[in-house]
Amino acid sequence: MTTNGFILHDTTTAAPQSAALLDQIEKGWGFVPNLHRVLAESPAALEAYGALWGLAEKTGFTAIERNVAYLAIIYENGCTYCMAGHTNLSKMAKVEDAVIAAVREGRPIADARLEALRSFAASVTRNRGVVAPAEVEAFKAAGFDNRAILDVLVLAATKLISNYTNHLADTPNDAFMKGAEWTPPNVQQAA
Q1: Of 23, 46, 106, 187, which is the most exposed, with the fewest CB atoms less than 10 Å away?
Q2: Per-residue model confidence as pLDDT tens digits over 87-119
Q3: 109 vs 93: CA distance, rounded Å
Q4: Most distant CA pair in the chain, distance
Q5: Is the Cβ–Cβ distance between 68 and 104 less than 8 Å?
Q6: Long-range CB contacts for residues 99-106, cutoff 8 Å, separation at least 24
Q7: Is-contact 78 171, C-beta < 8 A?
Q8: Which residue ranges form the domains of the chain, and what is each CATH number?
Q9: Containing H/E element for 137?
């Protein structure tokens, strides 16, 4: 159980629809992340997250670009669980350590194209989609197009489910996240 009273479900405690999804996740990943165990409380939430994750893989972004955007979104949402997890997933996707460190620290990335993506994804998240025309133009000037703008929204929607779930549940980190822990620079206090 999490500190906020959410159950870390497994196939024996989850509803049948969630149990089947947890079984698929374990077969694919070799374990069931705590996020998915929390999401299993709601078969719809678990299925929605899985569907969005799959759709995110179909965006026009490379694996490196996708991970940079995810990290930028996670940074803006202040999700400690996802930052730890996506730090290691980014390393697996061959994102350079310096790029990962920059995004985790809220600093610009040296690579201009990746920086445009980081900045745009962060702005979309921080401003709930209301970005200045100059930001859209800067994103496009870096070689992105309208598809990429909409693809950022797919990534943001994916992270909305996971980041908000982790905030509400206070999801504990998984073992594979050891060494990638993170504290948001501006920890928000509950109102």
Answers
A1: 187
A2: 999 999 999 999 999 999 999 999 999 999 999
A3: 17
A4: 52
A5: no
A6: 99/68, 100/71, 103/68, 103/71, 103/72, 103/75, 104/71, 104/75, 104/182, 105/185, 106/75, 106/185
A7: no
A8: 16-56 (no CATH), 63-177 (1.20.1290.10)
A9: helix 133-141
The residue among 39, 58, 59, 61 whose CA lies nearest residue 49 is 39
Token pair 């929390």: residue: 38
Long-range contacts of 108-116 (CB under 8 A, 24+ apart): 109/68, 112/142, 113/142, 113/143, 114/64, 114/65, 114/68, 115/142, 116/141, 116/142, 116/143, 116/144
Determine contact, residues 56/69, Cβ cutoff 8 Å.
no
> Can you read off the two tokens belonging to residue 26?
């374990």
**The pTM is what?**
0.94
For the cut 70, the answer to whether the pLDDT of residue 51 exceeds it is yes
Instruction: List pLDDT tens digits, range 125-134.
Output: 999 999 999 9
Type of residue numbered 187: V
One-letter identity of residue 79: C
